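Journal club side-thread
Mid-discussion, someone asked how the predicted structure for our own chain would compare to the paper's figures. Pasting it here so we can look after the session.
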Amino acid sequence: MNKSILTIELRTAGEVVLDLIEIINANRVYLSEIDGAIGDGDHGINMSKGFSMCRDRLVATTNLPGLAEAFDVLGLTLLEDIGGSMGPLYGSFFLAWADTLNGHADMDATLFGDALKKSLEAVQDMGDAKVGDKTLIDTLSPACDAYAAALAAGSDFDAALAAMMHAAEAGKESTRALQARIGRASRLGARSIGVLDAGATSCFLLLQSLGTSLQRRLH
């Protein structure tokens, strides 16, 4: 079977969002511990609160919505109900996914790449963070670049997802050596070096979950 032409049926893929909720809730304490090293220590708590609210709304429906609709519920929940900077950032991130997938019956490798790129642009539009500032951009931007490069080199959907996840993990790990330039952690100056960024870590977990959930549906 040629996996390069395989697609994901969006109408039946709403469980991908339930997987995202599970990974965030499973890492709630871990994310807050990372955040506590150079921030206020509530990243995992806030993320878990928002993702759990989304889960409650999704399971309250008679039928689990499709992937575009589920991303829309998640994005709006994070945007409207989660405080701090992460609510608007991740809310915009998932609403970009919903907007890009809306109206499509299936998602192929190209449409996934479009959604990933637009989600990056949505986050960048919310602030001035760049690669190297010790934020979730350090995970998301190289992951987006790696996915696009893999497709351009002829990789299939499955391999491009693997490239995305590998780059996301490397990007997340890169934040250990970076000095925070944006947000509360930037006040620590050089003392912010040596620990992971919580946003970069949650972004890696989300991209890893997204990639593995979709890969299971390609096999």
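Post-session note: The beta strands are 8-9, 106-107.
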